[in-house]
From TrEMBL:
Organism field: Caldovatus sediminis
SUPFAM superfamilies: NAD(P)-binding Rossmann-fold domains
A Pfam family assignment: adh_short_C2
Family, per entry: Belongs to the short-chain dehydrogenases/reductases (SDR) family.
Keywords: Oxidoreductase
GO molecular function, a single term: oxidoreductase activity
InterPro entries: NAD(P)-bd_dom_sf, Sc_DH/Rdtase_CS, SDR_DHRS6-like, SDR_fam
Keyword Glycosyltransferase: no
Protein name from the UniProt record: 2-deoxy-D-gluconate 3-dehydrogenase
Amino acid sequence: MSLHRDLEFTGRRVLVTGAANGFGAAIARLFHAHGAGLVLADIEADALSAIAAGLGAEAVAYDQADPASVEALAARAGAVDVLVNNAGILVAAPLLGTTPAQIRRLIDVDLVGVILLTRLVGAGMVARGRGVVLSIGSQTAFCGGENRAVYAAAKAAIAQLTRSLAVEWGPRGVRVVSLAPGRSLTRMTRDTAAPSHAGDRGLARVPLGRWGTAEEVAKAALFLCSDAASYVTGQTLVADGGYAAG
Ligand SMILES: NC(=O)c1ccc[n+]([C@@H]2O[C@H](COP(=O)([O-])OP(=O)(O)OC[C@H]3O[C@@H](n4cnc5c(N)ncnc54)[C@H](O)[C@@H]3O)[C@@H](O)[C@H]2O)c1
């Protein structure tokens, strides 16, 4: 038995949101290397076009906070075999320092937009009797974190969305999984994961002694979406260097 074939995506159409930066760009590159046909989506049209051009992918600019824009993305993407819900934002602030507009935007992008896109793209998967939905959650869903109250609440909802949809769509041939990274080195965390940052208790609690990388997150994402994980559904894989274990 070998895993090589199970990790191949040749002939499959994969939609990755938030693909212009960070995890999404790394996920797009790795899926491309494994043969996937890609539809890449992001709010940053220029950065997205640059990544998509390098991978021979379709690029769709959209705003995940706007239901009409999400609907247009789903229509453009058409029949998709794998949906990677990766686009997200972080408001790293205490709740008392967060405005209602910031709260609303975070929930719209990190939760409502994910549910709406999953509903639209997932309908096609259910109709065809196959597909995988992977949503990028966060380890803060389980551990919480300083200055993360609203973000952690949205990401905890992703874990429960994953469980419930897996129950709903499992009998229809669709797997629904989630990946919960710990803090990793991307633009989103460039301040709090910088080597010079001493402002919170984070790194001291990571048994592996370092932050994660986008490439490590991409590898876990590819596994979860692949046939190597064919009996995995409803679960969230925590990839956090051991933070949640401590
Ligand atoms: N970096 C971390 O430490 C970390 C840890 C756990 C989870 N995550 C999650 O991983 C995902 C990717 O984060 P990242 O670290 O790569 O951040 P990032 O900022 O580098 O990338 C996020 C991408 O989402 C896009 N995006 C933001 N708002 C959007 C919108 N309204 N519509 C469409 N696209 C939008 C951005 O343009 C960007 O390309 C997010 O869901 C994030 O919450 C990140």
